[in-house]
Design goal:
The structure holds two protein chains of two kinds. By secondary structure, chain A is of the alpha/beta class. Chain A contains 13 helices and four strands. A four-stranded mixed β-sheet of chain A has the order 1-2-3-4. In chain A, helix 3 packs across helix 4. By secondary structure, chain B is α/β, with parallel strands linked by helices. Chain B is about 35% helix and about 25% strand. Chain B is built from nine helices and ten strands. The chains are: A alpha/beta, B alpha/beta. Chains A and B meet through helix 3, helix 4 and helix 13 of A and helix 4 of B.
Amino acid sequence: MKTIRDSRIIVNNGSEAVFSGVITPRQLRDVSRAFNSLDARGEVVLDFTGCSGFDGVVAARIWSGILSLEASGARVKVTGMAPNLVKLLSDYTALDRRELPEVRQGWLFRHFSDIGEKVAAGLDSARGLVNFSVNSAFSIADALLKPHRIRWTLVAYYMEQAGVMAIPIIVTLQILLGFILGYQAGIQMGTLGAAKYMPRILAYSIFWEIGPMLTAVLVAGRSGSAFAAEIGTMKVRQEVDALEVMGFNLCGYIVAPKVLALYAVMPFLVLLSNFSGLFGALLAGEIFLDIPARVFVEEIRTSLIPLDVYWGMIKSLFYSGIIAITGCFMGIRVRGGAAAVGRATTSAVVSGIFQVILADALLSLVLAEIRPPVI
Amino acid sequence: MQREDNVLMGTRNLTGGYDSDMVLENVSMDVYCGEVLVIVGRSGCGKSTLMNHLLGLLKPWEGTVTYRGADIWESPERLDSARKKWGVLFQSGALLGSYTTIENVMLPLQEFTQLTAPERRIAALHKLDMVGLAEFAHYYPLELSGGMQKRAGLARAMALDPEVLFFDEPSAGLDPVTSHSLDELMLSINKTLGTTLVVVTHELDSIFAISDRVIMLDAEEKGIIAVGSPEDLATHHNDARVEAFFDRKAVPSRS
């Protein structure tokens, strides 16, 4: 390895560069400096007689140095270069001239074709989701008729993952939210002298909208994404294909436990979330708004009707179906590698929340009228 | 082809494995400059473990792994600088799916050299041309066949002109013809560039086609049971396990 220390690049009068020893990538800068100090207006001699070798990286720098010398009008003469190195440089030149097939089209074309492709992909995925939901619904119904075929241990596992583990975050967030909303509503309504109605309004909005919605968003973020990532990874590792060729019913085996688990836990998460929110509002009333807890509870007791409590739980059944099936669908659609799993996770959450809100809007349109006035 | 005076890397009394699972015990071996060394053995014998130790992916429990005479675990810088002299072809090719083939090959050039973009391109393209994939430079890994992905992985492993190339089961998942052409490619890299190759495989055809020297590992011994040229091991070896391996026979476990 002593040649490395002996390697040198010397430039004489700006018209001759002498390379010696083995030139390594550490000397890239020296190579550039040598090329830059050569005078490009006449004949330039590159003498490699003493040079015993260089690698592909250095070759690329020498090659581009020669090109730029020639481009600025110099006549470059290379002498004494070993035949394999000459071949390397001429390979570079030949490759540089070769037309390579481009898979990607020009950017303008790509711009327009992208729009169409995205719309088509969107429609395709919507159609796929509808198909998948119908299939899942049938196979879950089918599985429920033969309960011994459902893997109940898995159902329990997902109930724990999606339900029990979600309790701390849901309770904390909902108490905070109830507190903030109660405080703000109390202040605004106080200017109308209606602060005492704050508990009713809060109870109604939390039980009808905020509780179920926040729970659905959190569950979509925690569990919808987890389902998509889990199934997506199984898909990438060909586990899904393996199950399929073994004759397993994919919906029954992979999807049903997740959907059933969410159906089982979501109503109770919503219930918990609702009462946590109410508790937050109670705290706000007690601390800031001169509404004693006793009065708050009394207000709620007279204004809430049983439907209010059930309503969130009923809505949550729609939500859990949407979240679980969207998550599974996005996972099953994964093709390719790690990046595809990431995209599936994202679309499971985004599309899940979007559909939850859409469903909520439809349900409200149809059913908001059945609730007697709160105040 | 043996150059015993010219040890490039090796292990001394290496004991190691995964977590609490000891796979190798007291293993000493050398890799000579410019040779093609093949590590063989039946499944579970520690071939991949030995390679992971050589690559510095696993830390030895005891003993040392040396490269050019120095312990690679001496300091993090030592390991880093040694790794820049190594190229690895993983079983699946391990190309990054979100980059095109040529972008994959340019990746190490971008990270470790000061080459400009056009220079990186030509250097990467040349490596792709060596493995016969220049035409596929702008394809994504998913659009390539398994054999092509491996060749692209090889081009990426060669991007920085490494002194040693490691191959983890290069013929896994390839048909015999593709596998043979990969063998020839490996040989031509060894002959023309003088790159040292360390290959983990259990394909007999490959072993005879490419290796200068074979190291055979065994799960029960947790170490090396035979070293030599493939012909030596195949013809004059008394150990039943070595014989069985080269005769493709199953031997009952001795325990």
